[in-house]
Amino acid sequence: MVRSVIQGIGSYVPPRVVTNDELARLFTTSDEWIRTRTGIEERRFAEEGTTCSDLALQAAQKALEDAKLGPTDLDLIIFATLSPDHHFPGSGCYLQAKLGAKNVGCLDVRNQCTGFVYSMTVADALIRTGSYRNILVVGSEIHSSALDFSDRGRDVAVLFGDGAGAAVFSASNGDDRGVLYTELHADGEFTRALCMDIWDISHKPFITAENLESGKIWPQMDGRTVFKHAVTRLVETVTRTLARNGLKPEDVKYVFPHQANLRINQMVAEKLNMPKEKFLSNIQKYGNTTAASIPLLLDETYRAGKLERGDLLLIIAFGSGFTWGSALIKW
Ligand code: ACO
């Protein structure tokens, strides 16, 4: 039986650290407000001139090195982002050229915070059918160019940071490890709860001066609705994932939740009666890096030597759309 295993993993964050105190100099907020409501202490912002595919390149090169593969060994690149270099073509094509992975197919996934789970599900399916052997999945974001650093946008601006994470999924024969299960969900009734309207194709032209002036170019979020649904859906997805695989919570070594808000993940752990320590976090250092957050957390955990062969890892994510999902991996 062919399974897909994570053959290599890597991540990259830009060097510039932005503390909560630094944000408090731009608009009305405080380190205390941000820490207590979100767990975030600092985040990274890329310098002007840096694109999402630039961050992805650094993470991808580390993942390929870890996998002991070259760029042309890849059969496909799947690029998850909500902050692409340009509206088109997809960031996968920009990354492919920078990486030197000539003629390798590229697919962009626009599923926000669940981008990595959606992308790895596609990678896993293509590998298990025997179509492809090595697929690079990258999540990368530059949020710092698209946040409203004024009192109007402060609820969103404090949450997000820049970064990238990448994983090479490879075919493995007769192995009991690898991706065991994935599930994906969405509820399009909530598209307005977390969205960005700058691009509105119903307008002619599609970007209006009015949108620029009214602040519609910035992300809009109904934070409480997001919070409430995130907790409910993540609890549901963990419960179903465990039940469908005949597992108990104690069988899972670590949960890798999307890093949106430390309080969301702690509440999910509490409602599931699972130890909070099992729910790993690095949101304190990076804020919410959307599609990058899970591979970034996986890479840090792996490089810290915390993962042993055979460990059961559970990935869960919830985000704009709403979209949510899970993946179970035997390391
Ligand atoms: N600093 C200081 N005060 C602020 C800030 C800020 N950055 N932002 C909002 N406030 C104020 C509000 O204006 C409000 O003031 P008021 O009471 O005078 O009206 C007060 O703080 C409380 O605001 P709430 O929105 O009620 O605060 P809440 O406790 O709900 O926390 C938060 C807000 C942190 C955004 C929370 O709702 C949340 O985390 N929601 C989920 C958000 C999230 O996870 N988004 C991303 C996930 S999905 C994805 O990753 C794409």
Distance between the termini: 17 Å
Number of helices: 11
Q: What small molecules does the structure contain?
A: acetyl coenzyme *A
Strand segment tally: 13
Overall shape: globular
**Gyration radius from CA atoms, angstroms:** 19 Å
Strand order of the largest sheet: 1-7-6-4-5
Task: Summarize the helix and strand pattern as letters.
Answer: EEHHEHEHEHEHEEEHEHEHHHEE
Oligomer: single chain
How do the helices and strands line up, and which of them pair or pack?
Layout: E1 2-12, E2 17-19, H1 20-24, H2 31-38, E3 42-44, H3 52-67, E4 76-80, H4 91-99, E5 105-109, H5 115-128, E6 134-141, H6 154-157, E7 163-173, E8 178-186, E9 194-196, H7 209-214, E10 219-221, H8 223-244, E11 254-257, H9 262-271, H10 283-286, H11 293-303, E12 312-319, E13 323-330
Parallel strand pairs: 4-5, 4-6, 11-12
Antiparallel strand pairs: 1-7, 2-3, 6-7, 8-13, 9-10, 12-13
Helix pairs in contact: 3-4, 8-9
Bound molecules: acetyl coenzyme *A.
Acetyl coenzyme *A binds at residues 29, 33, 37-38, 112-113, 154-155, 158-159, 194, 221, 223-224, 226-227, 260-261, 264, 288, 290, 319-320.
